[in-house]
UniProtKB/TrEMBL annotation:
It is found in: Cytoplasm, Cytoskeleton. Gene3D superfamilies: Kinesin motor domain. Belongs to the TRAFAC class myosin-kinesin ATPase superfamily. Kinesin family. SMART domains: KISc (SM00129). PROSITE patterns: KINESIN_MOTOR_1, KINESIN_MOTOR_2. GO terms for cellular component: microtubule; microtubule associated complex. It comes from Chloropsis cyanopogon. One of its GO terms (molecular function) is microtubule binding. The gene is Kif12. This is Kinesin-like protein. It comes from the Eukaryota.
Amino acid sequence: PRPHPTIRVRPLTCTETRRGDQQVVHSLGDGAVHVSAARHDATFGFSAVFDAGASQEAVFEGSGMRQLVELATDGFSCTVFAFGQTGSGKTYTLMGPLAQSETQPASPALLGLMQRSFTCLLEQSRSRGSDLALSASYLEIYNEQIRDLLSPGPPCALPLRWSKTRGFYVENQLSVEFESLETIVSLLLQGSQRRRTSAHALNRHSSRSHALLTIHVRSRAGRWGPKHHPAVWVLQAKQGTLCFVDLAGSERVKETGSSGELSAEANSINRSLLALGHCISLLAKPRGKRTHIPYRDSKLTRLLARSLGGSGITLMVACISPSSRCLSETLSTLHYASRARSVTTRP
């Protein structure tokens, strides 16, 4: 299978409308998106395109997210990651509005892919009784350091290891079991509040780190043995994962007006996104023409190695702005997603 890049075009913001930005991105239907501006006229085709009027539910159902949840319960390694320019709507698509809290929950209609997936997963868990065990871990990669967002106390860097059986993994990360929607949503909020964010000229709540929330799905389904041992109950243990990756947005320091620590963070974000783009470009080549895939170039690509070109099933959500001022970043994101369509995996 190949990744299924889907495009989400956010609405023009009030600031963009006030300053007279033109809308240069238009959905043509049937998975096509058209970019038209001075010296630029291009059409791109994807699995699905969601325009500014698409609801959070429409994105969940139309992107194939429900099928991804079902595959995870069947023992597959599944990943969904949102990428795009800073302020393009990645975190909103995954999590819904940032104003939500335990005392002021978000409107159900605004909940993102994560909460809708949790509901779907728990419904499957209840239908299968005690066969399914669920746990969650939540990490961020900030300035090339991996931090646990669920561990109490001040954040400290965790080592990234390699083994032949597990591939790249994070040592000593906390994994918390859960059985209810309230528990996993509470863990999501707890981790998100500890994540590094800052305000700059393009985004009041800019994510300064890449965040990875992983749901581990352990299944202990069984079956009766073969005919000559019909009374033997054979356990068939499976372990699937469902990983949500909220990438920090690509940004140009000139546009964001960043300096000092913000500028250093931006350089770190852009380096890791460049490494991710390089891996995707090489993976998109035919298998016979591929060279070495440089997963070790960043912590992000190491942790996504299995999802990108190995045994995983991946959904990619590319978030873009329709504003004429963001044209170059929008085109870059669309080309990025187009390359990803050519990557094949062997789940």
